[in-house]
Design a protein that fits this description.
Elements lengths: L1 E6 L29 H16 L6 E7 L2 H18 L7 E7 L5 H14 L5 E4 L6 E4 L1 H10 L1 H6 L5 E3 L19 H16 L1 H4 L7 E5 L22 H14 L7 H7 L11 H4 L10 E6 L12 H16 L9 H4 L1 H8 L2 H12 L7 E6 L5 E5 L17 H5 L11 H38 L1
Parallel strand pairs: 1-2, 1-4, 2-3, 4-7, 7-8, 8-9
Antiparallel strand pairs: 5-6, 9-10
Length: about 450
């Protein structure tokens, strides 16, 4: 039985409800329909599994939200979708809701323990949850960029999105030596990182082998990332920074220079959450280590930036125009945006290995895969150029026909050998920082739990 864990944590924080006066026009403003990438990915996982897998295979789909209420709502929607997709295959799909708050590391530990105790194995871990942290828009800059450079403006909108700087999560323990933890860093990266490490014992039991799939963004950019500010506490473009960090970690995960820290991350011997280590780790010495991948959903019409109804449809219109002008990333539908993550989830290992081998043969390495479509909406999963890594780590201009034909980001330059060396060195530093931070927080949480148990 294949087991997949999928995050449906949502792209925005739950906001506190405010009481509005009956005469306030804002209370009657119409809002656009909400499209959640997490829910769409769950739906696409169901559809693709039923379409491509033989009748004797089954899927356990575990999705997480921040609350029991949201879990129940999502479960009802997925059950409805499953009934509409196929009434003959209902027994092949098992839906299991869970809840977790990625900004609460105790909550991450609690989920880890529940899954370790209840699952026989885990085939794929899709990490797409997080928050953008946007507080508004610089409307003058947004309008100017759309009028003068439309495709770029609606592909990389973070340059005119406003966000706070240095926002921290709530204090995790009562310990005096607890270090600060950035909110966007924790929600988008570190909470996932801790959970993935905790669940390595289950991923090792997969026979495909297990896959850890990071969901980055087409907006991720090197110019706002700084290794010395790995938590993105000093930049006003923290979202782009933490999404670039995801790509750095995944794309350098198979390099010799990062192997000491990657091996530590993928080790089940130092797992701090498993109360029954011996039973879950029997045979781990001969188990296959999980593979690490990174993808992105391109540009979708989601509720990541809340807009009033007229502005929402205006956004859809300009994104559709961008697609007609040759943008490969304006898939618009969050269902289409799930193409890359679902492909990485369900494809046979030989298919993924063959796709990446095309870049390895040219001297490259791992690939950032993205959902894409042409002018007519025909979708595909393609290699995405990454600043400092180029197309799959291949030095020089794009080599494969599809990459050469695809429209590039304005100002993109061909990867140089020096830039690749710099990228690999950044990846090494990031892996070291992340592992040191994980070990520190595991020790802090252990001490906090010991204090709680003694009280």
């Amino acid at each position: 039985m294949e087991v997949h864990l999928y995050y449906n944590h949502g792209e925005e924080e739950e906001k506190k409800k405010k009481t509005k006066k009956s005469g306030d026009v804002r209370a009657h403003r119409k809002h656009p329909p909400k499209h959640h990438g997490g829910l769409s990915t769950c739906r696409r996982l169901i559809d693709e599994f039923l379409r491509t897998r033989p009748k004797n295979q089954s899927l356990t789909l575990i999705f997480t939200t921040r609350s029991t209420r949201k879990s129940n709502e999502t479960l009802a929607k997925l059950q409805k979708h499953l009934r509409s997709a196929s009434r003959d295959d209902l027994d092949r799909i098992t839906l299991k809701p869970e809840h977790v708050d990625l900004c609460d590391l105790h909550s991450v530990r609690a989920l880890s323990r529940r899954l370790l105790a209840s699952l026989p194995k885990l085939d794929a871990l899709v990490l797409n949850a997080g928050i953008a942290g946007f507080t508004g828009l610089n409307w003058f800059r947004a309008v100017y960029m759309i009028l003068t450079d439309l495709v770029h403006a609606v592909t990389y909108p973070s340059s005119y999105c406003l966000s706070n700087t240095g926002t921290l999560v709530k204090k995790q323990t009562q310990l005096a030596d607890e270090p600060p933890l950035g909110q966007l860093f924790c929600a988008n990266v570190f909470g996932h990182y801790m959970l993935s490490h905790n669940l390595v014992p289950l991923l090792e039991k997969s026979n495909i082998p297990g896959r850890i799939i990071w969901t980055s963004s087409v907006e991720a950019t090197r110019e706002v990332f700084n290794v010395s500010d790995i938590q993105a506490l000093k930049t006003r473009r923290a979202y782009e920074s933490v999404k670039y960090l995801m790509a750095l970690l995944a794309l350098t995960s198979s390099l010799p220079s990062t192997s000491p820290w990657v091996d530590s991350f993928l080790s089940s011997n130092n797992n701090h959450v498993n109360g029954q280590k011996s039973s879950l780790q029997n045979g781990s010495s001969t188990s296959t280590k999980p593979n690490i991948y990174v993808c992105h959903p391109a540009v979708c019409a989601t509720s990541i930036v809340p807009l009033a109804l007229p502005l929402y449809y205006a956004m859809l219109s300009v994104c559709w125009v961008a697609r007609l002008l040759g943008s490969p990333w304006h898939v618009l539908s969050s269902y289409r945006g799930a193409a890359a993550s679902v492909w990485l989830c369900l494809s046979p290992q030989s298919v993924i290995d063959t796709a990446e081998a095309a870049y390895t043969a040219l001297g490259g390495g791992k690939v950032k895969w993205g959902a894409s479509c042409d002018r007519w909406g025909r979708e595909s999963v393609v290699c995405t150029e990454v600043e400092g890594w180029g197309y799959g780590g291949v030095v020089g201009p794009p080599q494969l026909d599809g990459d050469r034909a695809r429209r590039r980001k304005r100002g993109a330059t061909d990867l140089t050998a020096d830039e690749r060396v710099e990228f690999e060195e950044m990846g090494r530093k990031c892996w070291r920082e992340m592992e040191e931070l994980r070990v520190k927080w595991d020790e802090l949480l252990d001490r906090a739990e010991e204090m709680r148990d003694k009280a």
